[in-house]
Design brief:
Four copies of one chain form a homotetramer. Chain A is about 75% helix and about 0% strand. Chain A is mainly α and about 200 residues long. Chain A has a single domain, classed as Orthogonal Bundle (Tetracycline Repressor, domain 2), CATH 1.10.357.10.
DNA sequence: CATGAATGAGTTTTCATTCAT
DNA sequence: AATGAATGAAAACTCATTCAT
């Protein structure tokens, strides 16, 4: 099994270059949402992005590097949302913060269920680079901090359980065709509160 | 994307043939548990199974057919276990039956987390054959029947939520290296009871 | 710079397979003699050999592996010839054995000068596998033994000087279009005897 | 095989431009000495030279043109040295002039053996431009003139033999790690005098 | 039935070269 | 002149699948 290089190659400086990188990432995400990992080929990504295959490889040394970068972006955005959700947690009720967290979780996954599932599966075999591992750790810490602030026993395990259960549930709903975020949110709330009760 | 033929080719009658088919399935499962979908190649499966690539294609017309057959077997076994768990549900408490169901769920996934995750992901893009779709439907029905027997409102959605949340949670625990089925079982119980409360 | 795998993949057992491997090696040698290293591509080798690109990769994991195998074969044959030349050296005059050695050297290079030159250059950047390194060492030892048997001082350095000078000279003659082995042989004799005088 | 344009594009007039050209040539030579022909890529040359790829193509229309120019420079310098060595040949002994010639040959190759070898191999497939062919011819003529001045029979062939043998020998010594020019010089002297005896 | 050599479409990837800024 | 983003032809290499023995 080859170990692909995953660090981005050069940081785009000119505006044109930035646009190319964004086009590549969006094209890849789009392909994943439509057809999953097995339809993601570098040539197809380049074609959908409207750039040449050479341009793609200017910025990403491998397919894995693109996947890794999408994961990193998604994680960064999720972390931001979760941190925003817990920002005022010291002045808020447990329920209020939890609701914000769950809304963020639902929003980040429900509308791109195949993409989410593909990235989640990709994570299981990609050697994530440092930055993404740190992001994952911070996401986890955000949840653990929230749980500990409310005296939940065994917060680390509880955080992991909740995160993985919620991921599964939201993906399941999305793949089944659900689009009503509010309805799903209420069920995730029941799940989370029930588990933590 | 080509649409692969997925029905097994010929039902093996002779003992030697049955042994080959089992060897193929076990080899494939083993490869999935070790390296995931991207390491599953037909030549490698044949090699690990100790049969020639020609023999493999005697019994399975495509790689997808092997995957599908593994899923079918797993599902059939799970269905059996779930049906056994609900067999006496009319004479038992809600809690007693639920515990049996969850034990079955934990047992079926915890010790092969990468295999479970890979199959789950494979399901999202494979065109499952009739028999497996029926099995999935029966699994679902078993849960729905149990929930309805205990007057749970919105049983179909609840069943789906629980199944996908539990799958996520058990996989998450397994991938994190947990092996204590009893401890995990207790947490799944909390999750399920909490959600249904 | 990637480090290509150079060990042959599978040893051909059936006659058909052996024929394929020979066809590949001959095609590669032919291409090198006609156009040099820069015209040697795996697809072209397969085409000239009359096998599919897949077949080529069944037996050689990389272009480098093919080159390495050609070098190994050439070296093995040369070693054989040199050993034959020195077989009777204890009962022969210095001049008699030297003549045999030089005839072998001229024969092994003169008629394929571009091939020789390409392989020689290839050796300078290929990570030769064990077997070929051993062959090179044995070739060297054969010359050193011959020189020491005749009380030549500084035999190891003299052997290296002679081998590299003769290689250069024979290649030079071949590339210049010479084909008269006898005439060239006589000049190599002058060179060698002069250097050792 | 495409036939690349090899004549330099424009003669740099400004000081900055001359500096760029020199940087390019030195970078290319450096890369050849470190990694050989297969590591010589235009983008890498530009990077090492500290100029943009666009600038490189301002002065050289192709990769081959750079190689050709390096060869031309090397040859020009060697010719100068050889001509200097034979300048006084009419008033000197055969041995004295030969020694000067061999010192020049050793100096020009010993310290950059991989570069020498790469250029030598490159010459075998590059379509050398007029100027370099003339230089090569002049180098040859210089040797031939020297040999004929001392009544060597068959001077043209002898010149070729000596040049190619010495090239091989000096390269061989360099690649083997020798750095003592004096010691090597003495052995080349033995080789040349022996051959011409 | 079993074998394993052979196939070739499809992918990844490189790198010389062009061209808009 | 200089820059560096973009190009795409061409190469390396994989792997599902077929078929002669």
């Amino acid at each position: 099994m080859k170990q692909a290089q995953i660090n981005p190659r050069k940081t785009p400086k000119q505006a044109r270059a930035k646009a190319s990188v964004q086009a590549i990432l969006q094209a890849a995400a789009h392909i994943l949402e439509r057809g999953g990992l097995e339809t993601l080929t570098t040539n197809y990504v380049a074609e959908v992005a409207g750039v040449s295959i050479g341009t793609l490889y200017q910025y990403y040394p491998s397919k894995e590097a693109i996947l890794t970068d999408i994961i990193r972006q998604k994680r960064a955005r999720l972390l931001e949302d979760l941190q925003a959700a817990t920002l005022a947690m010291r002045n808020e009720s447990f329920d209020a913060t939890l609701a914000k967290l769950l809304r963020a979780a639902v929003e980040s996954q429900l509308h791109w269920p195949k993409l989410s599932k593909a990235l989640e599966y990709a994570e299981s075999f990609l050697p994530l680079e440092q930055e993404t591992r740190v992001l994952n750790e911070q996401i986890n810490q955000t949840i653990v901090a929230f749980l500990e602030h409310h005296q939940v026993a065994g917060a680390p395990v509880a955080a992991r359980d909740l995160v993985s259960a919620l991921r599964g549930m939201i993906d399941g709903a999305g793949l089944a065709g659900e689009t009503d975020a509010q309805a799903l949110f209420e069920r995730t709330l029941r799940l989370a509160k029930g588990y933590l009760a």
